[in-house]
Amino acid sequence: MMSEPKFYPCYINGEWIGADHSDRIQVENPATGEVWAAVPNCSVEQAQQALETSQAAQQDWQDLPPVERANYIYELADRLKAEKEHFAKLLVMEQGKTLDEARFEVDDTIRYMTYSAEAARRIEGQIFPSDQPNEQLMIYKVPYGVTVGLCAFNYPLALIGRKLGPALVTGNTMVLKPHEATPVTASEFCRLVDEAGLPKGVVNMVIGTGAEIGAALVASPITKLVSVTGSIRAGQAICASAAENVTALSLELGGKAPFIVLDDADLDKAVEAAVVARFANCGQVCICNEVVLVHEKVADEFTEKVLARIKGIKVGDPMKNIGMGPSTTAGGLARIDDIVKKTVAEGATLACGGRRPEGPEFEKGNWYEPTVLLNATKDSTAVKEEIFGPVMPIVKISSYEEALEIANAREDGLSAYLWTRDYRKFMHAVGHLQVGTIFINKGIVGYIQGYHSGHKRSGLGGEDGVHGIEGYLQKRTIYLGCQ
Ligand SMILES: NC(=O)C1=CN([C@@H]2O[C@H](COP(=O)(O)OP(=O)(O)OC[C@H]3O[C@@H](n4cnc5c(N)ncnc54)[C@H](O)[C@@H]3O)[C@@H](O)[C@H]2O)C=CC1
Ligand SMILES: O=C(O)[C@@H](O)[C@@H]1OC[C@H](O)[C@H]1O
After folding, report:
1. pTM of this prediction?
2. Which residues does the Swiss-Prot or TrEMBL record annotate as the active site (predicted)?
3. Is 252 a catalytic residue?
C-alpha cells in the first residue's frame, strides 16, 4: 500500500506556507516513479509577498556588520553538517543521484556556505586621490538589495548554497525558487534557516513553475538581481523579462563541453576522466563531457578502453549506492532517448546502451543504460544538442585545429576538456577555446576558489570564488568634499 506523500511547506517571512493549499506539486522518486512528497504550488501573490518581505528585511540585514551575517551562515553550515545523512537521503529521493554523490553534494553545499562566510572581512572598497585639495573619492561596495535565486534540478541543495551564501554575506536578502521537480531539500533547508534564527524575511522560499512563479519573481521591480542556474532557453526568457526594470543578472546556463583527446594524451587517464565526466550524476552536470572529440590515431584504442570501463558501471537503486542512478525527470529521459534515436537514424552506431535496463526494478522510474554512440559526426543530433544524460557520442577528429573549430562553432561556451602533453596546444587553447572553464589533463572536479561562468549563450556573470562574491555587490562612488 502506498503511503500518503509527506508535505513540505514553503517559507515566507519566517512562516511556513501552503499547508492549506489544495493546489500541490507532487514529487516523484526518479528511481521508482513513486510520489513520496508534496509541496505547495505557490500563487503569484505569494511570490509577491515573498519579495515584499525580503525587501522589508533587507536594510536591517545590510546594516549588520558582515561578520554577524557570517555567523548566521556558519550556523547554517554547522546545522547542515549535523544533518548530512538526512539531507543526502532526501537528495537521492528527489533527484536520483547515488547516496555517495548526494553526500558529496551536502559537503559541497557546506563548502559554498563556509567559503562565503569567510569572505565577510574581505568586502573591500577603494580610495582614490581627488583632483581637488581636501577631498576624498571613495568607492564602496554595497549589496543589490532583494535578490532571487532560481535553481536547476541537478543539484537542488548545492545550488542553494552557491547562491545564498554569497548573497547573504554581502548584505542581500534572497527569495529562493527551487526547480519544481526537486523542491524538498529547499524546504528542509528553510527549516535550518528557521532553527538557526535568521531574521525573518532574510531568506524566503516559494515553489512553482518557472513560467509562472519564476517569471513573476524576475519581472517584479522589487527584484534587483536574479541568479539563475538552468537552461539557455530559460536564461533567454529571463533576460527578456529583466529588461523592463534593467534588473541585474547572473546566468549559469547550459553548455556542451567537448572532451578533446589528442594523439599524445595519456589515454588511460583520459578514458577514466571521460567516463566519470559523462556518467556522474547520470550525466546531469552542466560541465559534463557532452561529446568526445578524439584524434583518429588513438580513437580505436580510446573507444575500446571506454567501452571496457563502461561495462563496469552498474545501474541500480541510488540509495544502495550500486552505481549510476536514474535521470531526474521523465521528460528528460524521453528527450535523451529521442536524441539517441535520431543520432542512430542519422548513421551513428550504438556501441552499448540506448535503452532502459531490463529487470523488474527498472520497470518504473527514469532509467537508461550508459550509452556510447560511435561514428557520430559534428552534424549528429547528439553532437549538436545538449544531452544532459548518460550518453557519450564519440567523434573522430584529425587535428587539434579541427576540434577547436567544432567547439568554437557553437553558440554556447560553458566548459571544455583538453587532453594533450603539448604545452603549445594547451597554451593556444587558453587564448582560443571560447568557453568559461577549460580542464586541461584533468577530470570534472572544479574548486570553490575558481570561477564558474559561461561564455557566449552559456551565461552572464558567474559564481564561486572572489568573483562570485563580487557578483552580489554593486559599487557606490562617494565624493567627499570638505567645504
Ligand atoms: N551553467 C551552470 O552552472 C549550470 C547549468 N545547468 C543547465 O540547466 C539545465 C537543466 O536544468 P533545468 O532545471 O532543467 O533548467 P530550467 O531552465 O528548466 O530551470 C532552471 C530554473 O529556472 C526556472 N525557470 C525556467 N524558466 C523560467 C522563466 N521563464 N522565468 C523564470 N524562471 C524560470 C525553473 O523553474 C528552475 O527553477 C541544463 O541546460 C544545464 O546545462 C545546470 C546546472 C549548472
Ligand atoms: O553547475 C554544475 O552543474 C556544477 O558546477 C555543479 O553545480 C553545483 C555543484 O556543486 C557542482 O558540481
Report:
1. 0.97
2. 252
3. yes
Q: How far is the CA of 286 from the centre of ligand 2 (A)?
A: 7
Ligand closest to Cα of 335 equals 1
- Count of Cβ atoms closer than 10 Å to residue 364 Cβ: 15
Q: Is 77 in the pocket of ligand 1 (CB under 6 A)?
A: no
**DSSP designation for 359:** S
Ligand nearest to the CA of 213: 1
Ligand 1: nearest atom to the Cα of 150: 37
Say if ligand 1 is within 6 A of residue 412 CB. no
Catalytic annotation, pick one of 252, 290, 463, 470: 252
For the CA of 255, the nearest atom of ligand 1:
41
Round to whole Å and give the CA distance between 232 and 254.
Answer: 5
**Side chain identity, residue 194:** D
Cell of 210: 518557472
Rg, Å, the chain Cα set = 23
| pLDDT average, residue stretch 443-457 | 97
- What span, in angstroms and rounded, lies between the C-alpha atoms of 453 and 435? 8
Can you list the domains of the chain with their CATH numbers? 6-253+458-479 (3.40.605.10), 258-447 (3.40.309.10)
DSSP per-residue codes, 390-454: SEEEEEEES-HHHHHHHHHTSSEESEEEEE-S-HHHHHHHHHH--SSEEEES--S---TTS-B--
The pLDDT of residue 2:
60
Pocket probe for ligand 1: among 153, 226, 289, the residue whose CB has the most ligand atoms within 8 Å is: 153
Tens of pLDDT, residues 177-221: 999 999 999 999 999 999 999 999 999 999 999 999 999 999 999
**How is the beta sheet containing 6-7 ordered, strand by strand?**
6-7, 35-40, 24-28
Question: What is the C-alpha separation between 62 and 143, in angstroms, rounded?
Answer: 7
Q: Is the shortest distance between the CB of 218 and ligand 1 below 6 Å?
A: yes
Ligand 2: which atom is nearest the Cα of residue 444? 12
Q: What is the DSSP letter of 213?
A: I
Region 425-445: what's the mean pLDDT? 97
CA of 452 to the centre of ligand 2 (A): 9
Q: Given the CA of residue 180, which atom of ligand 1 is nearest to it? A: 35
Mean pLDDT across 433-445: 97
CA 214 to chain CA centroid, Å, is: 16
Q: Are 371 and 349 in contact (CB under 8 A)?
A: no
Please, are residues 267 and 295 in contact by the beta-carbon 8 Å criterion?
no
